[in-house]
């Protein structure tokens, strides 16, 4: 048997990379996302946004993987009606002392009255009223250093623009894990008055 030429290995690798990229972009573009209007752009990638009413499912967990597993079970049919529900974006997470609060946004045709009841009692279904968020966008993996640096940016905008914040900072992730890190859309947000 002959050796595989390095050129073929490189071409195969690039083909796999291209397929991975296209699949990630397609998945991101075809996913229903939480609606908002940009009220004002404040520089440094920071936007003041108005979000419409929405319905969330939420659970507290020890980490992101556990939280995602609990909530994805619900949308994959582990609910009292065995209904599969489409994934939406963003996935929202907020650290609360030693627990993580994770939320999925339900598709717009669901609300707390018609969403199937969860089998897992740790899942809550709740309405989130229209609200204003101050948001900064970043790419790559979510890390403590990125959260800290984006928190500083938002705190500076809050102080400079005399904005009153109404809660704690939280992360919004828009892309599935197979999207290449440099193309991932993540946001740090906080509710404001």
In terms of topology, how is this protein built?
Elements: H1 6-29, E1 32-33, E2 36-43, E3 46-51, E4 54-61, H2 64-75, E5 88-89, E6 91-96, E7 99-105, E8 124-128, E9 131-138, H3 144-160, E10 170-173, E11 186-192
Parallel strand pairs: 1-5
Antiparallel strand pairs: 2-3, 3-9, 4-7, 4-8, 6-7, 6-10, 9-11, 10-11
Uncertain spans, ≥5 residues at pLDDT below 50? none
- The number of distinct structural domains comes to 1
Q: Strand-residue fraction?
A: 25-35%
The CATH class assignment is Alpha Beta
Shape: globular
CATH topology: the name is Multidrug-efflux Transporter 1 Regulator Bmrr, Chain A
Query: What structural class is derived from the secondary structure elements?
Result: alpha+beta
Helix coverage percent of residues? Answer: 25-40%
Assigned CATH superfamily: Regulatory factor, effector binding domain
CATH architecture: Alpha-Beta Barrel
Distance between the termini: 70 Å
Order of helices and strands: HEEEEHEEEEEHEE
């Amino acid at each position: 048997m002959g050796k595989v030429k390095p050129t073929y290995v490189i071409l195969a690798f690039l083909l796999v990379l291209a397929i991975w990229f296209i699949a990630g972009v397609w998945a991101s573009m075809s996913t229903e996302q939480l609606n908002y209007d940009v009220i004002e752009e404040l520089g440094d990638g920071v936007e003041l946004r108005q979000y419409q009413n929405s319905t969330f499912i939420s659970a507290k967990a020890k980490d992101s993987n556990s939280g995602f597993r609990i909530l994805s079970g619900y949308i994959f049919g582990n609910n009292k009606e065995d209904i599969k529900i489409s994934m939406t974006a963003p996935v929202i997470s907020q650290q609360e002392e030693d627990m993580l609060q994770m939320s999925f946004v339900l598709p717009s045709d669901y609300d707390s009255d018609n969403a199937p009841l969860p089998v897992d009692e740790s899942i809550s279904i709740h309405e989130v009223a229209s609200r204003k968020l101050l948001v900064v966008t970043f790419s790559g993996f979510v890390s403590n250093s990125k959260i800290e640096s984006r928190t500083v940016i938002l705190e500076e905008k809050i102080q400079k623009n005399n904005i009153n914040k109404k809660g704690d900072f939280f992360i919004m992730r828009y892309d599935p894990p197979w999207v290449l890190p440099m193309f991932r859309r993540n946001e740090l947000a906080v509710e404001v008055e």
